[in-house]
Design a protein that fits this description.
364 residues; alpha/beta; Rossmann fold; 3 domains; 17 helices; 12 strands; 44% helix; binds 1,3-dihydroxyacetonephosphate; binds iron/sulfur cluster
Length: 364
């Protein structure tokens, strides 16, 4: 019988560069703890700087709750990657402070070349981005020149520039169905679990790059089943970057925003959640009467560097955010020639989302 790993590895052409990912992880240092007093002083300073710099804070659901609440209090946005791109694009502020990982800052820059894009750190990458180098990806595309190239937003600007479509997890399935209906075959990169999920759900002819998210890959179906025995009334919510066995037992599969929406819609009072635990701030904040339990990550092969919390998202701390705003440091630059090519598939995604009237609501 084929193992889960075999099932999830069918049709892959390349192995993700795990050594490179490990190097990035080894370079990360834990942020220093801060007193309540210091935290509040920093938050006040950031609020002031946002005004002075005509800046707005655009934060992902996986960032520190302090950063999410700051974005909420200052008229910024807390959301998934699609809405982050859209919000930044629509907002008048001259500076976007993007709290998340580097591809989110690059996306903002590509869509808004005239704006200044700052980030708390430029070192916050993503295992999917690291595991998909543009030169190797180009060769993969050339081998399959008859396919429409669809890349996940979690990629470098150089990889986006090679694509026909960029998608985020909230719109990936819709785009695949659209392409399948038109009879197009898909070359997908880099997340194999999301790619396989999209292939199974859409029926599209899709081959995928061999990349994975180090956070979601740790979730274990067996552990979730064991937990469900303890919480029999709980619904399981999973991000599609999780392995196939996890997605198959989930009650709902979706992007971070779709997970929040599902928790709001479903009548259950308890939820087992297979995504980064940064999202718990929003879940608990919006639904104080419901209980959220993190899906287990333990088991063979689990690495506690990534247990349900993205080590790169964790690099977004108040201190770095304040410093970047104060000094104008960590500005994102994208080669204009590359940006000219990368903006086409990105705008295609945003226009497609608009045409579908897809309501992807952030916490603006
Ligand atoms: P979302 O677009 O669902 O927020 O996902 C981004 C991400 O990096 C998930 O790991
Ligand atoms: Fe990348 Fe995974 Fe972190 Fe999301 S959680 S930014 S996919 S490493």
């Amino acid at each position: 019988m084929a193992s889960e790993a075999d099932l999830d590895n069918e049709d892959f052409s390349y192995a993700a560069d795990q050594v490179l990912v490990k190097q990035y992880l080894d370079d990360i240092h834990e942020p220093e703890a801060m007193s309540e007093e210091e935290k509040n002083a920093r938050k006040e300073a950031i609020k002031q700087l946002l005004k002075e710099e005509d800046a707005v804070l655009v934060a992902h659901y996986y960032t520190d709750p302090e950063i999410q609440s700051l974005a909420e209090e200052t008229g910024g946005c807390v959301s998934d990657s699609l809405e982050m791109a859209r919000f930044g694009n629509d907002h008048d502020a001259q500076t976007l402070m993007v709290a998340g990982v580097k591809f989110m800052g690059e996306t903002a820059k590509i869509l808004n070349p005239e704006k200044r894009i700052l980030m708390p750190t430029l070192e916050a990458t993503c295992s999917l981005d690291v595991g998909c180098p543009a030169d190797e990806f180009k060769a993969f595309c050339e081998e399959h020149a008859d396919r429409t190239v669809v890349v996940y937003a979690n990629t470098s600007a150089a990889v986006k520039a090679l694509s026909d479509w960029v998608v985020t997890s909230s719109i990936a399935l819709d785009v695949a169905e659209h392409l399948h209906d038109k009879g197009e075959k898909i070359l997908w990169a880099p997340d194999k679990h999301l790619g396989n999920y999209v292939r199974r759900e859409s029926g599209a002819d899709l081959i995928a790059w061999d990349g994975a998210c180090i956070v979601h890959e740790e979730f274990k179906a067996r552990g979730i089943e064991d937990l469900r025995a303890v919480y029999p009334e709980a619904a399981v919510l999973a991000h599609p970057e999780s392995p196939r066995a996890v997605l198959e037992i989930a009650d709902r599969v979706g992007s971070t925003t779709q997970i929040i929406n599902a928790a709001e819609e479903l009548p259950n009072k308890q939820f087992i959640v297979a995504t980064d635990q940064g999202i718990f701030y929003q879940l608990q904040h919006r639904m104080p009467d419901k209980e959220f339990i993190i899906a287990p990550t333990a088991g063979s092969g689990a690495s506690c560097r990534s247990c349900a919390h993205c080590p790169w998202m964790a690099m977004n701390v108040l201190e770095r955010l304040e410093q970047s705003l104060r000094e104008g440091s960590n500005e994102i630059h994208v080669d204009p020639e590359l940006a000219k090519r990368a903006v086409i598939p990105l705008e295609r995604m945003l226009n497609f989302a608009k045409s579908m009237k897809k309501t992807v609501i952030g916490n603006a």
